[in-house]
Amino acid sequence: MDSSLSQPPIKPPHDGAVLGLLAGFGELPLSVVQQAKALGWHVVVFSMYSDNRRALEKVADTVLPITPGLVDTNIQLAKQHGVTYGVMAGKVNKWQLFCNPRLDKRAISILNTLRSRSDDNMMLAVIQLIEAEGFTILPQTAFLQDHFLPAGQLAGPPISDALQHDIHYGCHLAKTMAGVDVGQTVVVHNGMVLAVEAIEGTDKCLKRAGEWAKKKGGVVVKVAKPNQDARFDVPTVGLKTLKAMQKAGLTVLVAEANQTFFLEPAAMQAYAHTHGITITSVDVAAVLVEGAPVVAAPAKVGV
Prior knowledge:
alpha/beta
């Protein structure tokens, strides 16, 4: 496993230590809270979206709805609740910056100092600001190691020679795009690029690819960035990914082994078998070596 994402669980440094979770939407924040609580953390969630708020309220000690752009207000709120450590999890829609967001002077100042508003630049600026206030941001991987899968095939028919070519091509392209912080997902079919993920996110990228694939198949490749920061934006796949693929007529999901979070892999496996979708977790570094085959041995999945 890449040492940058291999992270032992982090226990609280003392009784009563408070972990603040900056929660985007989706299932990942819930998994972080459950693991953090099991490790002994007192967890305060700063909830940016309502879609998972009710579920978070059932497991976290405190859930506080926030407006992300009100930086000073949120920092004071964290201090009032005794937060000293933080972690980030869940999807955040960057396109909201174009939708008249509520931003305080500090948020505007951060944005104005960035030469590029790429995901990494924005997130690193946010982390730098938070840590300057005395907080420590922990890697999300410290609470989600059991969401990684080793190389192996999770579901579906064996990988054909034609698919091997598309997977090689897709892995190379995805790593290139991730390396310049454009996106972490690409879709290819018969040696042609159908879509590259950008600001729209994975699901809309898959929908766009489906408009070209015309239900004839397509290989979806999702990878980590070459120098993936374990504190944010670790690639994630789940049932939602498979449902978007099925709707778009895409038939193969390739995720980077030990670098991609799998949400509910047993449920993903069952859905893939029902809908004829192949899921494989691959060692992308090995795949990019000329002539190295895609690993097709069964992957072990906990139920």
